[in-house]
Amino acid sequence: MRALIDLIIKNKHWFLFILLEVISLVFLFSYNGYQKSVYFTTANDVVGSTYNVISGITSYLHLQENNRKLEAKNEQLRKQVYAMRQQLEAIGRDSIKSLPELPQIYHTIPAQVVNITLHKANNLITINKGEADGILPEMGVICSQGIVGIVYMTSRHYSIVMPLLNVNSKVSCRLRDSEYFGSLIWQRGYVNIAYATSIPRHAKVKKGDIVESNGYSDIFPPGLPIGRVVGLDDSTDGMSYLLKVRLFANFSTLREVSVITDYHSPERRMLEEQAEDPTKQDSILIQQEKKKAFEEEKRKAAEEKEKAEQEIIKAELERKYSETMAAQTAGNEHPEKTDTVR
Hints:
It is a single chain. By secondary structure, the protein is α+β, with helices and mostly antiparallel strands. The chain contains six helices and twelve strands. β6 (171-175) and β7 (181-185) form a beta hairpin. It is elongated and about 165 Å long. The protein starts with a helix and ends with a helix.
Protein backbone atom coordinates (compact mmCIF):
# COMPACT_ATOMS: atom_id res chain seq x y z
CA MET A 1 0.00 0.00 0.00
CA ARG A 2 2.87 2.32 0.88
CA ALA A 3 4.49 1.66 -2.51
CA LEU A 4 1.23 2.53 -4.32
CA ILE A 5 0.95 5.82 -2.44
CA ASP A 6 4.57 6.63 -3.26
CA LEU A 7 3.94 5.86 -6.95
CA ILE A 8 0.91 8.19 -7.06
CA ILE A 9 2.82 11.01 -5.33
CA LYS A 10 5.80 10.55 -7.62
CA ASN A 11 3.67 10.68 -10.81
CA LYS A 12 0.97 13.03 -9.57
CA HIS A 13 1.44 15.49 -12.43
CA TRP A 14 0.74 12.71 -14.97
CA PHE A 15 -2.39 11.63 -13.14
CA LEU A 16 -3.51 15.26 -12.98
CA PHE A 17 -2.90 15.62 -16.71
CA ILE A 18 -4.95 12.53 -17.51
CA LEU A 19 -7.78 13.70 -15.24
CA LEU A 20 -7.92 17.11 -16.91
CA GLU A 21 -7.88 15.53 -20.37
CA VAL A 22 -10.82 13.28 -19.43
CA ILE A 23 -12.78 16.24 -18.05
CA SER A 24 -12.07 18.31 -21.16
CA LEU A 25 -13.14 15.45 -23.47
CA VAL A 26 -16.36 15.01 -21.49
CA PHE A 27 -17.20 18.71 -21.86
CA LEU A 28 -16.20 18.63 -25.55
CA PHE A 29 -18.42 15.69 -26.50
CA SER A 30 -21.27 16.73 -24.18
CA TYR A 31 -21.80 20.27 -25.44
CA ASN A 32 -20.76 20.02 -29.12
CA GLY A 33 -23.07 18.22 -31.54
CA TYR A 34 -20.48 17.44 -34.22
CA GLN A 35 -17.94 15.99 -31.79
CA LYS A 36 -20.75 13.99 -30.10
CA SER A 37 -21.81 12.42 -33.42
CA VAL A 38 -18.20 11.57 -34.29
CA TYR A 39 -17.75 10.01 -30.85
CA PHE A 40 -20.84 7.83 -31.10
CA THR A 41 -19.99 6.76 -34.65
CA THR A 42 -16.46 5.79 -33.69
CA ALA A 43 -17.64 4.12 -30.50
CA ASN A 44 -20.22 2.08 -32.42
CA ASP A 45 -17.56 1.00 -34.91
CA VAL A 46 -15.22 -0.07 -32.13
CA VAL A 47 -17.94 -1.88 -30.19
CA GLY A 48 -19.23 -3.54 -33.36
CA SER A 49 -15.77 -4.74 -34.29
CA THR A 50 -15.25 -6.03 -30.77
CA TYR A 51 -18.56 -7.90 -30.80
CA ASN A 52 -17.70 -9.30 -34.24
CA VAL A 53 -14.41 -10.68 -32.95
CA ILE A 54 -16.12 -12.12 -29.86
CA SER A 55 -18.83 -13.66 -32.04
CA GLY A 56 -16.21 -15.20 -34.33
CA ILE A 57 -14.37 -16.70 -31.38
CA THR A 58 -17.61 -18.04 -29.89
CA SER A 59 -18.67 -19.51 -33.23
CA TYR A 60 -15.30 -21.20 -33.63
CA LEU A 61 -15.53 -22.69 -30.14
CA HIS A 62 -18.98 -24.07 -30.97
CA LEU A 63 -18.02 -25.18 -34.49
CA GLN A 64 -17.45 -28.81 -33.52
CA GLU A 65 -20.83 -29.05 -31.82
CA ASN A 66 -22.51 -27.45 -34.83
CA ASN A 67 -20.77 -29.92 -37.13
CA ARG A 68 -22.07 -32.81 -35.04
CA LYS A 69 -25.61 -31.48 -35.26
CA LEU A 70 -25.29 -30.99 -39.01
CA GLU A 71 -23.91 -34.51 -39.45
CA ALA A 72 -26.81 -35.94 -37.44
CA LYS A 73 -29.27 -33.98 -39.57
CA ASN A 74 -27.53 -35.11 -42.76
CA GLU A 75 -27.68 -38.70 -41.56
CA GLN A 76 -31.41 -38.38 -40.95
CA LEU A 77 -31.95 -36.89 -44.41
CA ARG A 78 -29.74 -39.54 -45.98
CA LYS A 79 -31.88 -42.28 -44.45
CA GLN A 80 -35.03 -40.63 -45.75
CA VAL A 81 -33.55 -40.40 -49.24
CA TYR A 82 -32.47 -44.04 -49.03
CA ALA A 83 -35.96 -45.15 -47.99
CA MET A 84 -37.61 -43.10 -50.74
CA ARG A 85 -35.20 -44.46 -53.35
CA GLN A 86 -35.95 -48.03 -52.29
CA GLN A 87 -39.64 -47.24 -52.49
CA LEU A 88 -39.33 -45.78 -55.99
CA GLU A 89 -37.27 -48.75 -57.16
CA ALA A 90 -39.91 -51.12 -55.79
CA ILE A 91 -42.63 -49.23 -57.65
CA GLY A 92 -40.56 -49.23 -60.83
CA ARG A 93 -39.96 -52.98 -60.68
CA ASP A 94 -43.64 -53.79 -60.55
CA SER A 95 -46.22 -51.01 -60.60
CA ILE A 96 -49.09 -53.51 -60.52
CA LYS A 97 -48.20 -55.27 -57.29
CA SER A 98 -48.78 -53.57 -53.98
CA LEU A 99 -45.76 -51.90 -52.47
CA PRO A 100 -43.72 -54.40 -50.40
CA GLU A 101 -42.30 -53.61 -47.00
CA LEU A 102 -39.09 -51.62 -47.19
CA PRO A 103 -35.87 -53.20 -45.89
CA GLN A 104 -34.74 -52.30 -42.40
CA ILE A 105 -32.98 -48.94 -42.42
CA TYR A 106 -29.42 -49.20 -41.21
CA HIS A 107 -28.31 -47.48 -38.00
CA THR A 108 -25.12 -45.52 -37.49
CA ILE A 109 -22.79 -44.29 -34.76
CA PRO A 110 -21.34 -40.77 -35.21
CA ALA A 111 -17.60 -40.36 -34.78
CA GLN A 112 -14.89 -37.75 -35.30
CA VAL A 113 -11.72 -38.08 -37.34
CA VAL A 114 -8.68 -37.61 -35.09
CA ASN A 115 -6.00 -38.52 -37.64
CA ILE A 116 -5.83 -39.05 -41.40
CA THR A 117 -3.16 -39.65 -44.05
CA LEU A 118 -3.75 -38.77 -47.70
CA HIS A 119 -0.48 -39.07 -49.63
CA LYS A 120 0.58 -42.65 -48.91
CA ALA A 121 -0.20 -45.87 -50.74
CA ASN A 122 -1.90 -47.31 -47.65
CA ASN A 123 -3.74 -44.31 -46.23
CA LEU A 124 -5.59 -44.79 -42.95
CA ILE A 125 -8.07 -42.82 -40.86
CA THR A 126 -8.32 -42.88 -37.06
CA ILE A 127 -11.70 -42.17 -35.44
CA ASN A 128 -12.53 -41.66 -31.77
CA LYS A 129 -15.02 -44.53 -31.37
CA GLY A 130 -14.23 -48.21 -30.79
CA GLU A 131 -15.43 -51.51 -29.40
CA ALA A 132 -16.88 -49.83 -26.31
CA ASP A 133 -19.25 -47.96 -28.64
CA GLY A 134 -20.28 -51.06 -30.59
CA ILE A 135 -17.89 -50.71 -33.54
CA LEU A 136 -16.30 -53.84 -35.02
CA PRO A 137 -13.98 -54.53 -37.97
CA GLU A 138 -15.51 -54.67 -41.46
CA MET A 139 -18.22 -52.15 -40.69
CA GLY A 140 -18.90 -49.47 -43.29
CA VAL A 141 -17.97 -45.83 -42.70
CA ILE A 142 -19.79 -42.96 -44.43
CA CYS A 143 -20.05 -39.18 -44.23
CA SER A 144 -22.68 -36.68 -45.31
CA GLN A 145 -21.34 -36.75 -48.90
CA GLY A 146 -20.97 -40.48 -49.40
CA ILE A 147 -18.90 -43.59 -48.63
CA VAL A 148 -15.61 -43.10 -46.76
CA GLY A 149 -14.24 -46.61 -46.21
CA ILE A 150 -14.32 -49.74 -44.04
CA VAL A 151 -13.29 -50.26 -40.42
CA TYR A 152 -9.96 -52.11 -40.44
CA MET A 153 -8.94 -52.43 -36.77
CA THR A 154 -10.54 -51.54 -33.44
CA SER A 155 -9.45 -50.94 -29.88
CA ARG A 156 -11.49 -50.08 -26.82
CA HIS A 157 -12.08 -46.42 -27.72
CA TYR A 158 -10.56 -45.95 -31.19
CA SER A 159 -10.83 -47.48 -34.65
CA ILE A 160 -8.66 -47.51 -37.76
CA VAL A 161 -10.53 -47.06 -41.05
CA MET A 162 -9.25 -48.14 -44.46
CA PRO A 163 -10.55 -45.33 -46.71
CA LEU A 164 -11.30 -45.47 -50.41
CA LEU A 165 -7.90 -43.77 -50.81
CA ASN A 166 -6.01 -47.01 -50.14
CA VAL A 167 -4.48 -49.29 -52.77
CA ASN A 168 -5.89 -52.31 -50.90
CA SER A 169 -9.42 -50.89 -50.85
CA LYS A 170 -11.99 -52.56 -53.11
CA VAL A 171 -15.66 -51.65 -52.84
CA SER A 172 -18.50 -53.12 -54.90
CA CYS A 173 -20.26 -50.43 -56.92
CA ARG A 174 -22.73 -49.89 -59.74
CA LEU A 175 -23.99 -47.22 -62.08
CA ARG A 176 -27.10 -45.68 -60.58
CA ASP A 177 -29.25 -45.70 -63.73
CA SER A 178 -28.33 -49.20 -64.89
CA GLU A 179 -27.75 -52.71 -63.57
CA TYR A 180 -24.07 -52.80 -64.50
CA PHE A 181 -21.72 -53.24 -61.56
CA GLY A 182 -18.01 -53.43 -60.87
CA SER A 183 -15.39 -52.60 -58.25
CA LEU A 184 -14.03 -49.26 -57.08
CA ILE A 185 -10.26 -49.08 -56.61
CA TRP A 186 -7.68 -46.37 -55.96
CA GLN A 187 -4.47 -46.13 -57.97
CA ARG A 188 -2.61 -43.60 -55.84
CA GLY A 189 -2.32 -39.99 -56.86
CA TYR A 190 -5.24 -37.60 -56.49
CA VAL A 191 -7.12 -37.58 -53.18
CA ASN A 192 -10.49 -37.18 -54.91
CA ILE A 193 -10.17 -39.60 -57.84
CA ALA A 194 -10.78 -43.37 -57.90
CA TYR A 195 -11.55 -45.85 -60.67
CA ALA A 196 -14.48 -48.19 -61.35
CA THR A 197 -13.38 -51.41 -63.04
CA SER A 198 -15.14 -54.38 -64.70
CA ILE A 199 -17.89 -52.26 -66.27
CA PRO A 200 -18.68 -54.11 -69.56
CA ARG A 201 -18.03 -52.41 -72.88
CA HIS A 202 -21.66 -52.69 -73.99
CA ALA A 203 -22.84 -50.69 -70.97
CA LYS A 204 -24.19 -47.24 -71.76
CA VAL A 205 -21.93 -44.97 -69.74
CA LYS A 206 -21.51 -41.20 -69.97
CA LYS A 207 -19.80 -38.49 -68.01
CA GLY A 208 -21.88 -37.33 -65.09
CA ASP A 209 -23.29 -40.77 -64.22
CA ILE A 210 -23.53 -41.46 -60.50
CA VAL A 211 -21.58 -44.37 -59.01
CA GLU A 212 -23.06 -45.90 -55.87
CA SER A 213 -22.89 -49.03 -53.71
CA ASN A 214 -24.66 -52.05 -55.17
CA GLY A 215 -25.49 -53.89 -51.95
CA TYR A 216 -23.74 -57.12 -52.99
CA SER A 217 -21.56 -57.02 -49.89
CA ASP A 218 -22.79 -57.08 -46.32
CA ILE A 219 -20.92 -53.87 -45.49
CA PHE A 220 -22.79 -51.14 -47.37
CA PRO A 221 -26.51 -51.04 -48.21
CA PRO A 222 -27.35 -50.45 -51.87
CA GLY A 223 -27.72 -46.90 -53.14
CA LEU A 224 -25.11 -45.06 -51.05
CA PRO A 225 -23.37 -42.44 -53.23
CA ILE A 226 -19.67 -42.84 -54.03
CA GLY A 227 -18.84 -40.41 -56.82
CA ARG A 228 -19.49 -39.13 -60.32
CA VAL A 229 -17.99 -40.37 -63.61
CA VAL A 230 -15.64 -37.76 -65.06
CA GLY A 231 -13.76 -39.86 -67.61
CA LEU A 232 -13.99 -43.08 -69.65
CA ASP A 233 -11.08 -45.27 -70.65
CA ASP A 234 -10.45 -48.91 -71.59
CA SER A 235 -9.14 -51.52 -69.20
CA THR A 236 -5.81 -53.20 -69.85
CA ASP A 237 -7.48 -56.21 -71.53
CA GLY A 238 -9.80 -54.01 -73.57
CA MET A 239 -12.84 -56.04 -72.50
CA SER A 240 -14.31 -53.51 -70.10
CA TYR A 241 -14.31 -49.84 -69.13
CA LEU A 242 -12.04 -48.15 -66.64
CA LEU A 243 -14.16 -45.27 -65.34
CA LYS A 244 -12.54 -42.27 -63.71
CA VAL A 245 -14.69 -41.35 -60.70
CA ARG A 246 -14.55 -38.10 -58.74
CA LEU A 247 -15.36 -39.03 -55.15
CA PHE A 248 -18.11 -37.19 -53.31
CA ALA A 249 -16.36 -37.47 -49.94
CA ASN A 250 -13.89 -34.63 -49.39
CA PHE A 251 -11.08 -36.36 -47.52
CA SER A 252 -9.03 -33.16 -47.22
CA THR A 253 -11.62 -31.60 -44.90
CA LEU A 254 -13.13 -34.78 -43.46
CA ARG A 255 -13.96 -34.39 -39.77
CA GLU A 256 -17.35 -35.99 -39.06
CA VAL A 257 -18.19 -39.58 -40.08
CA SER A 258 -20.75 -42.26 -39.23
CA VAL A 259 -20.23 -46.02 -38.82
CA ILE A 260 -22.93 -48.41 -40.07
CA THR A 261 -23.49 -50.86 -37.22
CA ASP A 262 -26.37 -53.22 -38.08
CA TYR A 263 -26.05 -53.98 -41.78
CA HIS A 264 -23.17 -56.38 -41.17
CA SER A 265 -24.21 -60.05 -41.41
CA PRO A 266 -21.73 -62.47 -39.75
CA GLU A 267 -23.81 -65.46 -40.86
CA ARG A 268 -23.63 -64.45 -44.51
CA ARG A 269 -19.90 -63.78 -44.36
CA MET A 270 -19.20 -67.11 -42.65
CA LEU A 271 -21.21 -68.96 -45.29
CA GLU A 272 -19.41 -67.17 -48.14
CA GLU A 273 -16.02 -67.89 -46.57
CA GLN A 274 -16.92 -71.56 -46.31
CA ALA A 275 -17.92 -71.56 -49.96
CA GLU A 276 -14.55 -70.03 -50.96
CA ASP A 277 -12.39 -72.31 -48.75
CA PRO A 278 -11.34 -75.48 -50.70
CA THR A 279 -10.91 -77.53 -47.53
CA LYS A 280 -14.35 -76.52 -46.34
CA GLN A 281 -15.72 -77.18 -49.80
CA ASP A 282 -14.38 -80.76 -49.57
CA SER A 283 -15.91 -81.21 -46.13
CA ILE A 284 -19.21 -79.85 -47.40
CA LEU A 285 -19.11 -82.26 -50.36
CA ILE A 286 -18.39 -85.16 -47.99
CA GLN A 287 -21.28 -84.10 -45.79
CA GLN A 288 -23.53 -83.88 -48.83
CA GLU A 289 -22.48 -87.38 -49.93
CA LYS A 290 -23.12 -88.72 -46.44
CA LYS A 291 -26.48 -87.03 -46.37
CA LYS A 292 -27.32 -88.46 -49.78
CA ALA A 293 -26.29 -92.00 -48.70
CA PHE A 294 -28.30 -91.65 -45.50
CA GLU A 295 -31.37 -90.52 -47.42
CA GLU A 296 -30.91 -93.45 -49.85
CA GLU A 297 -30.71 -95.94 -46.96
CA LYS A 298 -33.72 -94.31 -45.38
CA ARG A 299 -35.64 -94.62 -48.66
CA LYS A 300 -34.70 -98.30 -49.05
CA ALA A 301 -35.70 -99.02 -45.45
CA ALA A 302 -39.04 -97.30 -46.05
CA GLU A 303 -39.58 -99.35 -49.22
CA GLU A 304 -38.72 -102.59 -47.41
CA LYS A 305 -41.02 -101.68 -44.56
CA GLU A 306 -43.81 -100.88 -46.99
CA LYS A 307 -43.20 -104.16 -48.83
CA ALA A 308 -43.29 -106.11 -45.55
CA GLU A 309 -46.53 -104.39 -44.57
CA GLN A 310 -48.01 -105.25 -47.97
CA GLU A 311 -46.96 -108.91 -47.49
CA ILE A 312 -48.62 -108.95 -44.09
CA ILE A 313 -51.79 -107.42 -45.50
CA LYS A 314 -51.73 -109.89 -48.39
CA ALA A 315 -51.28 -112.85 -46.01
CA GLU A 316 -54.08 -111.51 -43.81
CA LEU A 317 -56.38 -111.19 -46.82
CA GLU A 318 -55.52 -114.71 -47.98
CA ARG A 319 -56.20 -116.07 -44.49
CA LYS A 320 -59.57 -114.34 -44.31
CA TYR A 321 -60.41 -115.55 -47.80
CA SER A 322 -59.53 -119.13 -46.83
CA GLU A 323 -61.65 -118.88 -43.69
CA THR A 324 -64.56 -117.51 -45.69
CA MET A 325 -64.35 -120.29 -48.29
CA ALA A 326 -64.10 -122.92 -45.55
CA ALA A 327 -67.16 -121.50 -43.82
CA GLN A 328 -69.13 -121.51 -47.05
CA THR A 329 -68.15 -125.15 -47.75
CA ALA A 330 -69.15 -126.22 -44.26
CA GLY A 331 -72.48 -124.43 -44.68
CA ASN A 332 -73.25 -126.24 -47.90
CA GLU A 333 -72.57 -129.69 -46.35
CA HIS A 334 -74.74 -129.14 -43.22
CA PRO A 335 -78.15 -128.82 -45.00
CA GLU A 336 -77.66 -132.18 -46.77
CA LYS A 337 -77.11 -133.97 -43.47
CA THR A 338 -80.31 -132.44 -42.08
CA ASP A 339 -82.39 -133.68 -45.02
CA THR A 340 -80.97 -137.21 -44.57
CA VAL A 341 -82.01 -137.32 -40.93
CA ARG A 342 -85.44 -136.33 -41.88
